[in-house]
Design brief:
Blueprint lengths: L10 E2 L8 E6 L7 E7 L3 E7 L5 E8 L4 E6 L5 E6 L3 E6 L4 E7 L4 E8 L4 E7 L3 E5 L8 E4 L4 E7 L2 E6 L3 E6 L5 E7 L6 E8 L6 E8 L3 E6 L9 E4 L16 E6 L6 E5 L4 E5 L4 E4 L8 E6 L5 E6 L17 E6 L10
Antiparallel strand pairs: 1-28, 2-3, 3-4, 4-5, 6-7, 7-8, 8-9, 10-11, 11-12, 12-13, 14-15, 15-16, 16-17, 18-19, 19-20, 20-21, 22-23, 23-24, 24-25, 26-27, 27-28
Length: 345
């Protein structure tokens, strides 16, 4: 099959999207089965069931009137939120297979996250209209709207913490306890545009304690919110060509970062068509893999950390001249529990 030769022998997801994948999320722990949702530039969100054998069964799909930029699961697994360039977020009820609008902005909505706190639940949306909004999905008016200094490029939520990366390369940190409030604003240690952000937990307390941010310049920064030692914060290079070409190294964007839910190690995917697994505490790469022939745009772990999913498709990093419409888009799955075990110290 054309384009389907995966050098890492990973499993192909059936009936992938018709355009580049912009969001990839597994179902929450409350659901006994494993489902995978993917949003795409083809204006659709698709859902598959992933069977124990690794076989994927397409379940359903919903359309938006613009490309989908993010998806988020409701904590009970019954609904998927879909954020689009059409300036809205819709809630897709999987049982009835219907979608209703639950949030609106004045510009494309870049991220959506479901927040489950002990005393409330809400949907957090961030947009290129430079606002961060919190919604009770039963009301058309946000519970709260916070102004941002710039457009939102990436965000993550791990209760009680939210982190939002902005176009001016600053990162706003919020506490979601009681009611959402900004706690800190940090300037990124990375000199170039942010592409992705993921919150990580403290190994002992299991509380969110910092975040990783990736940039277009093949670099990831590991940042603690309150580092015990300033040296805890560091950056590392990734997604770069191993050799040099006339003394120059090819440098690629880090398109997504995901932390393993059990081991706390992380995966990165990039425009160079490769994914890598890292141990941030040992500051080492866990395992190299063969690069694919197209950029990797998104990645995710399922809640048990057994499955790693990643999407392959053109990310326009080399402009329209490098777009080849005959190259299809793929989502691949691989077993990830053992590969992501931390380096034994």
């Amino acid at each position: 099959m054309f384009g389907g030769t995966n050098p890492n022998k990973d499993v192909e997801v059936a009936s992938p999207p018709d355009d580049t994948v912009s969001a990839l999320k597994f179902s929450p722990p409350s659901v006994p089965q494993t489902f995978l949702a993917a949003g795409s530039w083809d204006c659709q969100v698709r859902c598959w069931e992933v069977e124990a054998s690794g076989k994927t069964v397409p379940k359903a799909a919903q359309s938006m009137s613009g490309p989908v930029l993010d998806v988020a699961w409701h904590d009970d697994g019954s609904k998927i939120f879909m954020a689009s360039t059409d300036k809205s977020v819709k809630c897709w009820d999987l049982a009835s297979n219907t979608a209703v609008q639950v949030a609106a902005h004045d510009a494309p909505v870049k991220t959506c996250h479901w927040v489950k706190a002990p005393n409330y639940t809400c949907l957090m949306t961030a947009s290129w209209d430079k606002t961060l909004k919190f919604w009770d999905t039963r009301s058309s008016v946000p519970i709260m709207s916070l102004n941002l200094s710039e457009r939102c490029y990436c965000a993550d939520v791990d209760y009680p913490m939210a982190a939002v990366g902005l176009a001016d390369r600053s990162i706003c940190l919020y506490s979601l306890e009681g009611k959402p409030a900004e706690v800190k604003r940090v300037d990124s240690p990375l000199k170039y545009q942010h592409r992705c952000l993921a919150i990580f937990k403290d190994k002992k307390t299991k509380q969110p304690t910092g975040f990783a941010v990736g940039s277009v310049e093949g670099r990831v920064a590991i940042q603690y919110v309150n580092p015990t030692n300033p040296k805890d914060n560091f950056t590392f290079k990734c997604h770069r060509s191993s050799g040099t070409n006339n003394g120059y190294q090819d440098i690629y964007a880090v398109n997504d970062i995901a932390f393993h839910p059990v081991h706390g190690t992380l995966a990165t995917v990039g425009s160079d068509g490769s994914f890598s697994f890292w141990d941030k505490d040992a500051r080492t790469k866990l395992k190299p893999f063969e690069a694919l022939d197209q950029p990797l745009t998104k990645c995710a772990f399922n809640h048990t950390g057994q499955i790693f999913a990643y999407a392959m498709g053109y990310d326009w990093s080399k402009g329209h001249e490098s777009y080849n419409p005959s190259k299809k888009n793929f989502i691949y799955l691989r077993p990830s529990f053992d590969d992501l075990k931390p380096r034994s110290t």
